[in-house]
Task: structure prediction
Amino acid sequence: MSSTLLENGVDGDDKEEESEVGNSEAEDAEADEEEEEEPRLKYQRMGGSVPSILQTDSASCITVAERMIALGTLGGSVHILDFLGNQVKEFVVHTAAVNDVSFDIEGEFIGSCSDDGSVVINSLFTEERMKFEYHRPMKAIALDPDYVKRSSRRFVTGGLAGNLYLNAKKWMGYRDQILHFGEGPIHTVKWRGSLIAWANDTGVKVYDAISDQRVTFIEKPRGSPHPELLLPHLAWQDDALLVVGWATSVKIVSIKSNFNQGTNETYKRIQMSSLKRVDIVASFQSTYFISGIAPFGDALVILAYVPVNGDGEKNFNSTLPSLQGNAQRPEVRVVTWNNDDLATDALPIHGFEHYKARDYSLAHSPFSGSSYAGGQWAAGDEPLYYIVSPKDVVIAKPRDAEDHISWLVQHGWHEEALAAVEAGQARSELLDEVGSRYLDHLIVERKYAEAASLCPKLLRGSASAWERWVFHFAQLRQLVVLVPYIPTENPRLRDTAYEVALVALATNTSSHKDLLSTVKKWPHSIYSAIPVISAVEPQLGTSSATDALKEALAELYVIDGQYDKAFSFYADLMKPDIFDFIEKHNLHEGIREKVVQLMITDCKRAVSLFIQCREIVSPADVFSQLLAARKNCDYRYFFYLYLHSLFESNPDAGRDFHDMQVELYADYDPNMLLPFLRSSQHYTLEKSLEICVNHDLLREQVFILGRMGNSKQALDVIINRLGEIKEAMEFVSMQHDDELWDELIRQSLNKPEMVGVLLEHTVGNLDPLYIVNMVPNGLEIPMLRDRLVKIITDYRTETSLRHMCNDILKTDCVNLLIKLYKEARRAIYMSNEEAELRIKKRNKDELPHLSDRIIRNMEPKSKIRGGTRCCICFDPFAIHDVSVYVFFCCHAYHETCLMDSIVSMTTSKKKPQRPPQNDSLYYHYDDEDNEDEDDDAGDEDEDTRVRCILCTTAVG
Result:
């Protein structure tokens, strides 16, 4: 077992420890080789009043009650202390050294015995005091546990006289009963329940105070030093277990009442003390001298004195402290009943070099032995052990969960310590300390990733702790591993912490992807993008400028509102959503220099964008940029897509590239070439023809040859290459060239099938007899008879259609002439409102059936006389205040003159009625809109309409 030099509580004498470093190096080296076990106890020196008491006096004995401690000194004083060492009371009742002190179980009385032969019992809460004189040095005392409850006020005491006295209060006063005598001095006595155990020179005896009988005798270990030199030690673990430590021997004695089994298999207790059953349940020999012993749950606590080499019985001949100064530190050992060491702690007691085994003593506070379970004591049930030397008092107590955790941390077992804290074995505040030390340990071990992964668990919601570790990782240049775990809320850190983290990612080439993901994941409001941008921009011109870094920079530009710069990087990275980004932020001006990137990203959307923004991006810009990037993309295909869409949008927009467009159509979409050739007027015919010849595009060749005037060559292509006689005939018909018909016939004569088709489809275009006359004799034409019949039938049909069309044409001409004549006879009536009212008042009964159409006009601005004269009265017309009828035959009349003439000519008929007038000047037409509906009715009513007098008279 490894020894712990009071690292966990007692401070010790620094100078003495330094002097022993050299002597203990070999021992420490050997101890390090073994696995160090966790201590079972922790220690601390008793403070309060104790140091000052022991500065002028020396401790000789100690006992512990439930609420206080009694310390006896060589000066004869008994000091009552609290558990912190503060003096509560002091009893100066002896003139010599106090050898033993004892409390009752209630802690209300304290008994002490001294070398002056006196025994004194003091009340702690009253002035009651009893003093008994025995005239010989008294070495041991034990109060009845029920001292305060019993009127007998019993106690036992003994000393050098060899008598063990049981003192009790009788009717006549206090009387002593000698329980034992004649076997040497009484060295120690302990009372538990009804049992009293004491030790003398021959061994240990047990007495039953109820039955007034001795229970057992345990012989002194053979070969042990004289009790005066090495005292025996007794301790009751409970009412039935007595622990005996003497020299190097340990015995555990079980004392139980004996039972007889009855007929019903029950046990009857025999009320005879002689029948108590006594068993030694465990015993062992140690390699050290026992200076004190006490129970420790299921184990034992032993105050061990380790003799130096040659230190044997001869050295116990003197009771004076050793003057050589070579004694070992006293040890506190926790052992099992089988002498298995559970823990060993060496105590740096003040002046230990000069002390012998009998200079030390061990006392423990009362406790329930059953409270110890699973290695931990229940709260409030922990036993306290007091190690007393002449100038020192050390308190030992079981280590609790927090002590266990601290020990794990000190020895580098941080994971176990953390698990213990998380299991609720200690207060939650300890997690911060354990976590901090664990992280420090991992940092020292260079386990940065593991430390970072534990930060969320260990730092939890402490913003200050997070910031401290962020800057610590940054100082170690290991912040990259911590970034994924940095919280963005609950808690939210200062902006600087996030900016430092992003800069750390930006300056590490291998972490650029992490930078991108972090920028996308973190809320934009928690940091400023400007410091990060400043850290990234210098890297763009270096080899560390990865795509991830560029995209991260673009995201930072977006956060900072610099959309144009962000667009430049998005375009270079060819992000699929670049087009939505352009529309969202209206970045059309920036696409001028990014033609290639946009085309590679999505050529269809790029073409549509370029067509939409052709005022910004001209066809020349598109072509020049695509041509410059010909090694990186299929620039001809991209340009074909662009020109095709541009031509559909505006046929003249890309006319400078129509020659190239012909070639592109020939390469990528030949079906679109012919419509393009027919629609465009901006390509070179010769070059286009060469392209079509190279690509064997026959119909396109025919069209271009036709436009070039090479009709015969085009016809040759149709007949000899395409073999389409119908198409040849259509081509010839469109050219309106008789010589071309001859060429068609000439080339078809060698092909009988073509001659037949030619005969079948020439009706309306060419005289079939002309073709027949040119056919060589003996040429067999398939289906000739049927085709001749069809030719004749078609000819007749065509002739009939022509005759019918001529008849229809003649009828239409006659009808139109009649309509023209009637239009010429129509009158226009012009008047103003005042004149109309006068005339209307005068002639309201005249011309009731006149229904001319009205056309409104504006009032003349002047009243000058016109040059036109009335054809009846020959007076010139005034522009103002006049009502006039004008005819298409160029005759004009005053209304009054014309009406009078009509009335005189048609006295037997009803007078025509003027149309109603509402405005200042009107134009009236004869209403002949329905003249085509009933021509006969028009002839009958003609006399009722206004007619030109001169023309009517001339006709008549």
